[in-house]
Amino acid sequence: MKKQSAASNQITEGVIWKQLLLFFFPILFGTFFQQLYNTTDAVIVGNFVGKEALAAVGGPSATIINLLVGFFVGLSSGATVIISQHYGAGDGRRVSDAVHTSVALAIAGGAVMTVIGIAVSGFSLRAMNTPSDILEPSLVYMRIYFLGTVPSMLYNMGSGILRAVGDSKRPLYFLIASCFINIVLDLFFVVVLQLGVAGAAIATILSQTISALMTLIALARTGDSYRLVLSRIRFHKTHLLNIVKIGLPAGLQSAMYSVSNLLIQSSINAFGTDTVAAWTAYGKIDGMFWMIMSAYGVSITTFAGQNFGAGKYDRVKKSVRVCLGLAAVTSVVLSCIVVSFGGTILLLFTRDAQVISICEGIIRLVAPTYITYICIEILSGTCRGCGDSFIPMILTCFGVCILRIVWIFVAVPMRNDISTVVFSYPLTWTITSLLFAVYYKKGRWLQKDSIADAPPAAQ
């Protein structure tokens, strides 16, 4: 396959702040609709079924789902890095081989996640001390949800491929379409057919399947080097090893977040259904912050990866400064919005006075500290885009996972209330951000060999 030209690639050539924002906003809108996609289940079951159903779809079950799915999504980020570096270097053949390896990994990984997810659902929920009144609906939701893991993985991998080559618009369009489909199906299965949490799960997997099909069709119809040919889907050893080398630490990093969140959720479960429902509702409000930070993280990973592959290291550093500035301003604005209007937004999910009171306390404690998180997202994304994902994993392991575990087992028993539990978030964000800032300043993350410069290997 002939090499593509990178001359017109604006990520490696255009004005940095402008190109970052042009790439960022479609991702932001995409993550907004992803959040709306995830929130739809909570809003509909919370209003039409009850607070037990709200806790079932967004409490312990969501935490376990995020652990398994988040690990694979982190693993697949290795594919985004590999493809973005080869695309930035203009190597069309390697782009194509990496794309087909990535899709094969999505299919295989999704199948494995389906089996594991269904098998461990019951044990995991009981191990987390899930309240008895939400145990059964949580189990139903999880088992149905995991039946749709393969299309979910294909959509995430396909979107990652498109973003790796600088196309952040089409993943947005596909997500918007599937989001509205999910809303319609949710209303049909939950409100009309009255299937409860099972209906919400069925609506989710059907809409995920549609989004996966749209993404695969887009990859199959392109004339560029990342075109997907179904007969060529297979593992290419060299690319698979590179994807795992970069993606496995990212997947473990995601899993560490989820493991620490499992401990948090277990502690929250002990306070009863009202607190679980309040934590679920707060998670939906908090999602505004995470969707924006995630968009910045995806943007800087692709931006750093393509410029690193093109050998433009100064441009990588400049993009980090710009992205940190944008993220800082955004986090302050979001803190003000959530603190000021969080109580009003809560009414979308529940009218229960006790649930609202608990949730408002959580908002006052966590929302003002959003800015302490930004270095983790931006600097780890930069390092990963340049092929360095091991040290960020270690920093996250210590700063987030280990410190949260220590806090839960030491501090919470001394002062056993919800505020002590949730304080673990701003505490560990601050410490981990400082660790990332020190590592970034030393510059070792930029002393890696570009995968795009490696000699080709026989496949």
UniProtKB/TrEMBL annotation:
Bilayer topology annotation: Multi-pass membrane protein
Taxonomic classification: Bacteria, Bacillati, Bacillota, Clostridia, Lachnospirales
Domain of life: Bacteria
Chain segments annotated as coiled-coil in the UniProt record: none
Primary location recorded for the protein, binned into one broad class: membrane
Record-linked CDD domains: MATE_yoeA_like
GO cellular component, one term: plasma membrane
InterPro entries: MATE_fam, MdtK-like, Membrane_Transporter-Flippase
One Pfam family it belongs to: MatE
Keyword terms, alphabetized: Cell membrane, Membrane, Transmembrane, Transmembrane helix, Transport
Designated name of the protein: MATE family efflux transporter
PANTHER family: MULTIDRUG RESISTANCE PROTEIN YPNP-RELATED
